[in-house]
């Protein structure tokens, strides 16, 4: 489908979703965002659903302003994937050992490494910029500096919720490695720190929702936020890169005879801010649950722990600010999923997948998400599919 345009307060709301299927709370959030004085455009992805302040699945383009709650608290959250030379024929009948080895190498949930990972010891990992990155830690908000040790030990860890590590097969039987994570606790604390500052600023006192408080250009608060935001986005990117290097090492050891070769990694943020230019104007584009899909750019759109995921190439649709969905998108809250479904439902919906099948991940049951095929159909003018993947192992925290 192409987009549906709905009148907003200052800009039209361009939706790559059927407005009738979007819950009332999310529609109100979109209208609220369209009232912001600095807004220049709002594009809504097919995985749209209710979030904090701004919906998940929205792309907000503003001139001279950025809303920290519209970035989300997991700054830089995103996906990484890599195709391997392995095929389905290389896999053992029982995948439980492989799953266990991956879980041993990469801490999940609230876990962290006993000692910080030394990237210099990781096979093929580029350490260019690593020392400079950590050197900039001294310049981030004083309020979170006491978390440095934790931040170093959480680098290369998964987290919980919808974060995952997957071992997938594409339609031709080729093995792909895929994972989803962000900036861990340090990103969350930076986000919450700055959201609190923004909400107290005088220019935000009259806005429709305090969770839409913004920083404006040429102020010290904006400079501080952008410094910390870009650092956290980099943390998230390194976090995924280190996890992928650890993941590859497990695969090398477990498939030693096959001598696996790995293609170029694909990596994309889906909770972040970028400086982009549209119609001759420099804008700050916030993608909250959306990936950049510029012409020819690779991206990753996952389903849920029992459905397909997609490797895509962007079509460069400027009406969507060169964006696409970040996944299937939830169709019910975590609480609603836990009330509605049972462990038996989870077992049925993840049949054939080596994964957790217990009440601790019931909120991640596939039925709690929108059908990924429908989401992909609704954004045919945003991306083209390069590969369709189905997981055989899914690890969650």
Q: What's the average pLDDT?
A: 97
Decide which structural class fits the backbone. alpha+beta
Residue ranges: pLDDT <50 for 5 or more in a row?
none
- Quaternary class: single chain
Major sheet attributes: 8 strands, mixed
Strand content: 25-35%
The helix/strand order is EEHEEEHEHHHEEHEHEEEEEEEHHEHE
Distance between the termini: 35 Å
**How many beta-strand segments?**
18
Q: Enumerate how many helices there are, as a single number.
A: 10
Question: What characteristic shape results from the CA principal axes?
Answer: globular
Keywords: GTP-binding, Ligase, Manganese, Metal-binding, Nucleotide-binding, RNA repair
InterPro entries: RtcB, RtcB-like, RtcB-like_sf
GO molecular function: GTP binding; metal ion binding; RNA ligase (GTP) activity
Cofactor: Mn(2+)
What's the SSE blueprint?
Elements: E1 4-6, E2 13-15, H1 24-33, E3 39-49, E4 56-62, E5 65-66, H2 68-71, E6 78-87, H3 96-105, H4 130-135, H5 148-154, E7 164-170, E8 174-181, H6 184-200, E9 215-216, H7 220-254, E10 266-269, E11 271-278, E12 281-288, E13 290-292, E14 298-301, E15 308-314, E16 323-325, H8 334-340, H9 343-349, E17 354-355, H10 372-377, E18 383-396
Helix pairs in contact: 3-7, 6-7
